[in-house]
Amino acid sequence: MILLVTNKRDLTSDIVVLELRRRGLPFYRLNSEDLPQATIRFDPRPDQGWEIDFDEKTLALRDVRSAYYRRPGAPEPRPTSDAATQEYLTNEWSAVTRALWNALDGRWLSSPFSILRAEDKPRQLALAATLGFNLPETLISNDFEAAAAFVAKGGAIGKPLRHSLLDRGDAGEVLFTARLDPLKSMDRDAVGLAPVIYQREVRKGYDIRATVIGDRVYAAAIHSQEHDETQVDWRSGTRLDLRHEAIELPSDLTAQCLALTRGLDLRYGAIDLIADEDGKHWFLEINPNGQWAWIERRTGQPLAAAIVDELAAIAA
Question: Which of 34, 55, 86, 253 is least surrounded, with the fewest CB atoms within 10 Å of its CB?
Fold first, then answer.
């Protein structure tokens, strides 16, 4: 059996479910926010392990042959009137999920623990440099003097080290990559609050999303330079007409993408690259559990089928 670990609102998992059904492969979709509604048992004997009961449906982890950690939600314990008890329950169910994920070690498309480690952008950049990718000149720092000197050279952009969403209650704010003006003395305190990724801007011909699934790489050109609002960060703006195109990468770059993903202990990775105005390729980052459904929809690349192929191979 193939296990999908996700949440109730994840439309991308719906696409994987359709492919699994088309092939007649047995699967179980676990929406992890619902775990506190289940009855759970663990028996440490080798032939037992975890069992999870949802009404009449039982998931026994010993029956799982491969698993896809897609977009799990945080467990939602039943509400109580006491805040301390609620926090306790939340922490206990979080511990249960970690134990479940550990119990599936060796059966994941990409382990959630590998995904977590791979989200470390300095680690990504260091490995990419070792593998011979072209990298923009980069500084990660909250040192005002160093940041000011870097930006003063011109052509600098800034982006978050980890979180790109600023929670402002009802309306979240997305922190897109942005071109930077020279820093002034009044910026000193703000720069010192937290490290930021500063990079030398590469003048783009187009952006590339390279989706690695197992030993296959599916590359799509994102023609970000055709619209003013997407030139620096193709995710900004609301361009529903942003042109995407399936492309082939040079063989050496394909090999580097595969080596990077394997070096991060992943079987899946969504790599952001740039093709500059002269056709030279540059590495930006890898999203170890990045979205892919919109790429399949825009380009026709068979990403869901490739993911199911990999899950089936793991399960064999």
Answer: 55
Q: Is 292 helix (H, G, I), strand (E, B) or coil?
A: coil
Q: What are the start-end ranges of the H helices in the chain?
A: 11-23, 83-103, 112-118, 121-130, 144-152, 188-192, 251-263, 293-299, 303-315
Strand pairing category for 138-141 and 204-213: unpaired
Given phi > 0 = left and psi -120 to 50 = alpha, else beta, which region is 20?
Answer: alpha
* Residue 293, number of CB atoms within 10 A of its CB: 16
pLDDT at 172: 61
Spell out, as residue ranges, where the chain has pLDDT lower than 70: 164-173
Q: Which two tokens stand for residue 74?
A: 């945080």
Helix (H) or strand (E) run with residue 216 in it: strand 216-222
- Both tokens assigned to 246: 């399936």
C-alpha pair distances (Å), 254 with each of 110, 114, 248, 291? 19, 21, 9, 20
The pLDDT score that the predictor gives to residue 241 is 87
Specify the pTM. Answer: 0.92
